[in-house]
Amino acid sequence: MQRGKFITIEGGEGVGKSTNIAYVKSLLEEQGIDCIVTREPGGTPLAEEIRDVLLKNREERVVSETELLLMFAARAQHLYQLILPAINEGKWVISDRFTDATYAYQSGGRGVSADKVALLEKFVQKDFKPNITLLLDAPVEVGMTRARERGKLDRFEEERSAFFNKVRKNYLERAKAEPERFKIIDATQSLEQVQNNIRQVLTLT
């Protein structure tokens, strides 16, 4: 049986990931591809419990190292319980974020050493990486305006613009370093234009 592929959708707050993940799924299904949608942190019952811990607003300061370890704890469960079994069954997996988000948020945003992230990445994932990563990119001001319109913000969404500018910078640097895997989509365009770009990318994949 041919292995499935792993597609990740990355980007900061308010760039339209949810809408476009649904579009990617419909696009693959049009081509007769069996696919599932998942998210990080989360994806399995235990990983979703860790997600709740990570996103909950709390008085106690969450130490950056704690946040990083929780992210990879959720990722290990997600990877071995859901992602790899599905891919081995020939399914394509579409994930709302993966390890690139950890580099962007915990290393870029929080300032944790990228070497520490890379060490945990190697420990948990071995050499496993997405086949393709769609990076939905928009200026922070645009994304945060959209995020606020959705309602109550979680612990990450309440960060200041300076944090999200560092997140965006890290994402763009990673995309530049791996142009074969990353495809940058301008999320400030109309939804129709964004989805045309996504269709073009996935048709060539």
**Overall geometric form:** globular
What's the number of extended β-strand segments? 5
Low-confidence stretches: none
Widest sheet: strand order?
2-3-1-4-5
> What is the H/E string?
EHEHHEHHEHHEH
Percent of residues in helical segments?
A: 55-70%
Please tell me how large the radius of gyration is: 16 Å
Give the number of helices. Answer: 8
Structural class: alpha/beta
Distance between the termini: 19 Å
Outline the structure in words.
By secondary structure, the chain is α/β, with parallel strands linked by helices. It has helices spanning 17-30, 45-55, 64-88, 99-109, 114-125, 140-149, 161-177, 191-204; strands at 6-10, 35-39, 92-96, 132-137, 182-186. Strands 2-3-1-4-5 form a five-stranded parallel sheet, with helices on both faces. Helix 2 (45-55) packs antiparallel against helix 3 and helix 3 packs parallel to helix 5. It is globular and about 50 Å long.
Blueprint of the fold:
Layout: E1 6-10, H1 17-30, E2 35-39, H2 45-55, H3 64-88, E3 92-96, H4 99-109, H5 114-125, E4 132-137, H6 140-149, H7 161-177, E5 182-186, H8 191-204
Parallel strand pairs: 1-3, 1-4, 2-3, 4-5
